[in-house]
Amino acid sequence: MDNRQRVIKEAALLFRTYGIRAITMDMLANQMGISKRTIYELFNDKDDLLEGVIEWMSEKQKEILSKILNESENVIEAIFKIFDMMRDHFKNMSPAFLLDIKKYRSKMVDKNGKSEMHFYGFNEEFIRKGIKEGVFRKDIDVAIINTCLYEVSKMSTDTKLSPSDDFDRGEVVRNVYINYLRGISTQKGLDLINYYEQT
């Protein structure tokens, strides 16, 4: 692992634990036992570092999702494994990180003129695989379903999801997502959803 990757990995951990605004370049340098100058030789500023962190986190997530999909017996099992992973993921993440990432992402979207299509490609991959496995209906419009499921998955990072603490964000997404899947599932798919919900 080169120095750039080491800095990105350490920054990702600190950002997720304490939030982005709470972490300074000085704190990152001290944590890593390197000089601040070393960091600035690799990144122009904190925004540049954050862009690297988001890109790295996105790539790691894609790798994990693909691994789960490939190692599961079927698409429905993969989805339940992903929800378990996401629950643990959000449990260990600072609420400040979610607030900060939304703000910084908007800034980067304005700067780059485009938004990162988080989960978009993965959703399409598992929808098509589910049709092939016979768990999702063949008559569904993959592009429309993909867009809808993408919007549901975005709710996991929506800080305005609920005006109170009555609902757990992960459980809201899980409930909406699973019930949406019921609507596009064959009987085989419904049986699998019921099985994995019970286990």
User: Share of helix among residues?
Assistant: over 70%
Average predicted confidence as pLDDT:
85
Class derived from helix and strand content: mainly alpha
CATH architecture of the largest domain: Orthogonal Bundle
Could you state the order of secondary-structure elements as H and E?
A: HHHHHHHHHH
User: What is the beta-strand fraction?
Assistant: under 5%
* CATH classification, class level of the largest domain: Mainly Alpha
Cα distance, first to last residue? 39 Å
Number of helices: 10
Low-confidence residue ranges:
112-117
Provide the number of structural domains: 2
Q: Tell me, what's the shape?
A: elongated
Radius of gyration: 19 Å
CATH topology (level 3) name of the largest domain: Tetracycline Repressor, domain 2
Q: Biggest sheet: strands, sense, closure?
A: none
Notes on the structure:
By secondary structure, the chain is mostly helical. It has 2 domains: 59 residues, Arc Repressor Mutant, subunit A, CATH 1.10.10; 127 residues, Tetracycline Repressor, domain 2 (Orthogonal Bundle), CATH 1.10.357. It has 10 helices and no strands. The longest helix is centred in the first third of the chain and has 26 residues. About 3% of the residues have low confidence.
